[in-house]
Amino acid sequence: MSQASSMRRWGSRLLLIGCCLLTVIWVIATIASDRWWWSQWLLWLTSLILFPAGLMGMTGLRLGQNKAWWYLSGLSILGLLLFLGARWGTFQRNTQPAHDLRVMQWTAGHAYDEVEQHAGSIAAVDADLTIVEGGRRIVASDTFKRWSAGFDVALKGGFVIASKVPIESLKTKHWADDIILVELIVRWKDSPIRLLVVDLPSNPIRSRDSIAKQVRGILEDAGEVPQILIGDFNLTGSSWQLRHLAPDRSPIWNHVGMGWGGTFPRSFPIYRLDHVLASPEMTDRLSISTIDPGVGRHRAQILTLQESE
Length: 309
Fold this sequence. Notes:
Blueprint: H1 3-32, H2 37-40, H3 50-63, H4 73-87, E1 88-90, E2 101-107, H5 115-125, E3 129-133, H6 142-147, E4 152-156, E5 159-163, E6 167-176, E7 179-188, E8 191-199, H7 208-222, E9 228-232, H8 240-243, E10 250-251, H9 253-256, E11 257-260, E12 274-278, H10 280-283, E13 286-291, E14 300-305
Parallel strand pairs: 2-3, 8-9, 11-13
Antiparallel strand pairs: 1-11, 2-14, 3-5, 4-5, 6-7, 7-8, 9-12, 10-12, 13-14
Helix pairs in contact: 1-3, 3-4
């Protein structure tokens, strides 16, 4: 056997081993999700890991002169389809701005040098209820003051809240261990709408299971769970912890999402870290999309609530 033939054989084996390894990692991540500390790291790989896995497998089979090499193109295609399918919302609903409640939730981060740009992005959306994390400096900007004149404006738990509808109650439920939970009640169409504004730790070292258990304990102690949970959960869209965070409250993106759903990083949003959780009854009245504010760390969520019939 020639040296070139031997190198092709070993190259083929290594590439096929790499293909199998990446595929197995994806399967483990899909099954285990972030239930445990060791598995939460795998979720950051996303189904895109299948794309290079398929390329490696195809190349390995071609080096081995296997005529069925092109079959593994399906693995690469599957990875792309799963990735796009999880982030592209196809829901359609006719909105009526005069009758709907529009909510903007934005994890803007600390605005130091771009305060006016942040305020301009908020004013451009002109939502009925605006919730911004990290926007305390924005409140003092001229643009924000002009836009929010006559609104209910409040600062609570690291959030800036500006509302065209009356704020009935605003309470910090928890602010410790980098976990911030703020209960917000607004009155709209003569009915109270209860929201829990959420900001969970971004530290990748911390156990997502431990954080979720702590949040569940806080919600249990508080009694009735708000109708809508909204904010930066720092959990991916496929997170097991996210789906089991609150009783009868589920992520709504897969049901009523419209357009591209990634929120982080803002310039190339391949992860959805900002979410809305709601009950099935409330989800039937909701639709959600994301926008690029042009500044900040995350893209913003635009939540639309229809008037109940």
